[in-house]
Amino acid sequence: MDVLNTRPAEQAKDLTELLLSNNINSINFPTIIIKPVALKTLKSPGVGSRLVFFVSSNAVKHYFSQQKKSAVELFKNDQVYAIGSATAQALFEQGIKSLSPTKKFDSKSLLQTLPNKLTGQTCLIIKGQDGLADLANGLLEKGAKVELIECYQRISAERCSENWEQFKQSNQPIVLITSVDLVKSLLLIVPQEDLAWLKQQSAIIFSKRIKQEMQNLNWTGRLSLVSLQSNQGILDSLENMRQNNE
C-alpha cells in the first residue's frame, strides 16, 4: 500500500512517520506551497472583547510570525477559536487556549458552537487568501461584524517526477486529499497523459465537499471519507481499506 501525500511538505512529516510505523508507505507529493502574505492594519484593534477565529495551523504560524507582541498579549481580552485539533495545538504552543469542534472540523461545526445571535459582535477571521467564505457568511447571518485577516497564500508546487513515477508503480496506490485546493492543484501538476489513470485510483478524503468536487472532476475511483479529520483518522481509513483487500 502506497499513499500519495499531497499535503504541503511541512505538514507531511508526522503523518509519514505514523504510516511507516504501521507498514504503510507514504510518498510525499506536495501539490501546493504555503507562503506568507504581509498583514494589513486591523480595522478592529484589540479594544474590548472580540471573537477570533483561526482557520488552520498555517494561519497560526504565519500570523504570529509577523507580530512583535506575544500571542497572549495580542488576544488577552478575546475568545479564540480553532477550526480543528491541529490548529488548536498550534495555538496552545503559542500560549493560547482555544475552543474548537470536537469531532467534525469544519466551519459549519464551529458555527454550531456559537450563540444564534451575535448582533454587533466583532469577529476576526485569520486565514489564507481565497479560502472558503462559509465561516464569514455564517457569522454575518448571526449579526456579527466580520473582519478578514489574510496572512498566507497557496501556490501550486512543482511536480516531483521521481515520487510520481514511484507512485505509478504501486500495486495498491491510494491518494490522500484533505482539501479542495489540493485536488485542484494535483490535477494541474500531474502529467496530462496520467490524468485518466489517476482519476481511477482510490482516495482518502476529508469532507463531503471534497467528494462532490472530485466527482464533478470525473474522479471514478473509490472515495473513502475519514471518520475523524486527523492523522489517526487517515490511518484508520487506510487500515480498513487494507483489511477489505486481504
Kindly summarize this structure in a few lines.
The chain has 246 residues and is an alpha/beta fold. 36% of the residues lie in helices and 21% in strands.
Structural notes for this entry:
The structure is a single chain. Helix 2 packs parallel to helix 4. The protein has a five-stranded parallel β-sheet, with helices on both faces. With 246 residues, it is an alpha/beta fold. The protein has eleven helices and ten strands.
Topology:
Elements: E1 2-5, H1 13-20, E2 25-28, E3 32-36, E4 51-54, H2 57-64, H3 71-74, E5 79-82, H4 85-93, H5 107-112, E6 122-128, H6 134-141, E7 145-156, H7 161-168, E8 173-177, H8 180-189, H9 195-198, E9 202-205, H10 208-216, E10 223-225, H11 231-245
Parallel strand pairs: 1-2, 1-8, 4-5, 4-6, 6-7, 8-9, 9-10
Antiparallel strand pairs: 3-7
Helix pairs in contact: 2-4
Keywords:
10 strands, 246 residues, 11 helices, Rossmann fold, 2 domains, 5-stranded mixed beta sheet, 5-stranded parallel beta sheet, alpha/beta, single chain
Major beta sheet, strand line-up: 2-1-8-9-10
Q: How much of the sequence is in beta strands? A: 15-25%
The CATH class designation of the largest domain is Alpha Beta
CATH topology of the largest domain: Rossmann fold
Fraction of residues in helix: 25-40%
Could you give the distance between the termini?
Answer: 12 Å
Compute the gyration radius: what is it? 19 Å
